[in-house]
Design a protein that fits this description.
481 residues; alpha/beta; Aldehyde Dehydrogenase, Chain A, domain 1; Aldehyde Dehydrogenase, Chain A, domain 2; 2 domains; seven-stranded mixed β-sheet; 14 helices; binds adenosine-5'-diphosphate
């Protein structure tokens, strides 16, 4: 008996009905290689059916009062919080992150449901002073309609609630396609949503091993009015092209290449702690993880020795066991990518000072690693590492480091460590990244806008911005008044 058995669902959810399918695909535990479940594999017929169910449901859900939606969302929030441990153990089983981190994700994920349960009652329109007599100008906010959400495997709970909670709160109905590696958390969340009173068709979930075909139907179907996607820039570009045919609204939260800048005047332990938190969370598998760590020359020796000590204390192992900070990478492709980037870096002169190889805990485990002597000829200065590898660069002055930090097509998160308030302002304003952590490595909160610039995408999740993504602003002009 597993702690999550009660929440384990292995079917497709359409119209609050759990449907089976001709084919099934395996969901494996990356720490042990064990099979967790074989999940019904949705095909294009299921997508069309789910879109139809969402369209019918929208007729009613879109007209409910904000207060009634708020009450259902609050109930969903409470149920998620009541099942925190079970959801976290399922998350650890299918994704690998340590249980305490998984618990943190469930609570963070739930906070979006709570926030949007509150926020949906404040989607105000406005009245606008008219420039001529006899007219009245105003705006109202209305839900955009049927929304499709496509989510990644690195946050199997939070990436879902961050999209679905504001969509449902706005009055939209949803077809969700979770990542093939981690569909079980999505299905578990959906089962709690049904228990909370989400009506049939309002939330439909399509686990599938054929993301490309399902994605194409979602992007090209005229009934779907918006796509919200989190994943790679490469796939984001495909979706953008596919959405062009129906001029669909899009939110894209894509890859990152986060710089961390440690200035000479930083509080060194704040910088070490913040960099460590940003780099090694989820074994380095987040789009806001420190990808390039720039350390100013004077503080460099001290920073390296303390950072190395802190990294040496990280325990690697199965996230389901106690006192583990680094779980496995998600799959073989993840390990191969880290290996390839490390090989390229060392070929080009990087020096491995800690770790550097796979870990005896098992095939998908990688040692927490630090490499120094990095430069911008290396592939890992351009690509997301997505693994527990700290790549350290040295810099001389502020002007130089701003230029280097911006030398990427990505623009998601960046971090600055300095005790000089003027420098913090100056540099934050110059960085071409959508979110800036100042003396802080963990920056996402339900109340704040999460999102990128450049090829990291567009659209915001979280805060009052997050619900706007699911609302049309309709303008009314009343004449003859
Ligand atoms: P990652 O590299 O983090 O796995 P992906 O962009 O490949 O990022 O995956 C993010 C999400 O996009 C997953 O749900 C995945 O199934 C989905 N996906 C991958 N390829 C496509 C595609 N061609 N069309 C639609 N969705 C896709």
């Amino acid at each position: 008996m597993k702690p999550y058995d009660q929440l384990l669902r292995d079917c497709i959810l359409i119209n609050n009905y759990w449907a089976s399918a001709d084919r099934r695909f395996p969901v494996m535990n990356p720490a042990t290689g064990d099979l967790i479940a074989e999940v019904a594999d949705a095909d294009t017929n299921h997508v069309v059916e789910a879109i139809g169910a969402a369209a019918v449901a929208f007729e009613t859900w879109g007209k409910t009062t904000a207060r009634s939606r708020s009450l259902i969302l609050k109930k969903w929030y409470q149920l998620v919080m009541q099942h925190t441990d079970a959801l976290a153990s399922l998350l650890t089983a299918e994704q690998g992150k340590p249980f305490t981190e998984a618990k943190g994700e469930v609570i963070y994920g739930a906070s979006f449901i709570e926030w949007y349960a509150e926020e949906c009652r404040r989607t105000y329109g406005e009245t606008i002073p008219a420039p001529v007599a006899g007219k009245r100008l105003l705006t109202i906010k209305q839900p955009v309609g049927v929304v499709a959400a496509i989510t990644p495997w690195n946050f199997p709970v939070a990436m879902i609630t961050r999209k679905i909670a504001p969509a449902l709160a706005a009055g939209c109905t949803v077809v969700l396609k979770p990542a093939e590696d981690t569909p079980l958390s999505a299905l578990a969340l959906a089962s709690l949503a049904i228990e909370a009173g989400i009506p049939p068709g309002v939330l439909n979930v399509l686990p599938t091993s054929d993301a490309a075909s399902i994605g194409k139907v979602l992007c090209t179907h005229p009934v779907v009015k918006k796509i919200s996607f989190t994943g790679s820039t490469e796939v984001g570009k495909i979706l953008m092209e596919q959405c062009a045919s129906t001029v669909k609204r899009l939110s894209l939260e894509l890859g990152g290449n986060a710089p961390v800048i440690v200035f000479d005047d930083a509080d060194i332990m704040v910088a070490v702690k913040g960099t460590l938190a940003s780099k090694y969370r989820n074994a380095g598998q987040t789009c806001v993880c420190a990808n390039r760590i720039f350390v100013q020359q004077k503080i460099y020796p001290d920073f390296i020795s303390r950072y190395r000590e802190a990294v040496a204390e990280l325990n690697v192992g199965n996230g389901a066991t106690e006192n583990v900070q680094i779980g496995p990478l998600i799959n073989e492709a993840g390990i191969n990518k880290v290996r390839r980037l490390l090989f390229d870096a060392t070929e080009k002169g990087a020096e491995v000072i800690t770790g550097g190889g796979t870990h005896p805990a098992g095939g998908l485990f990688f040692e927490p690693t630090i490499i120094t002597n990095c430069n911008d000829s290396m592939l890992l200065s351009r690509e997301e590492i997505f693994g527990p590898v700290s790549a350290i660069y040295v810099f001389n002055d502020e002007h130089e480091v701003v230029r280097l930090a911006n030398k990427t097509e990505y623009g998601l998160a960046a971090y600055i460590f300095t005790q000089d308030i003027n420098r913090a302002w100056r540099v934050a304003e110059q960085l071409e990244h959508g979110m800036i952590g100042i003396n802080e490595g963990i920056i996402s909160h339900a109340e704040a806008p999460f999102g990128g610039m450049k090829e990291s995408g567009f659209g915001k999740e979280g805060g009052y911005y997050g619900i706007e993504e699911y609302l049309e602003t309709k303008y009314l002009c009343i004449g003859g008044v």
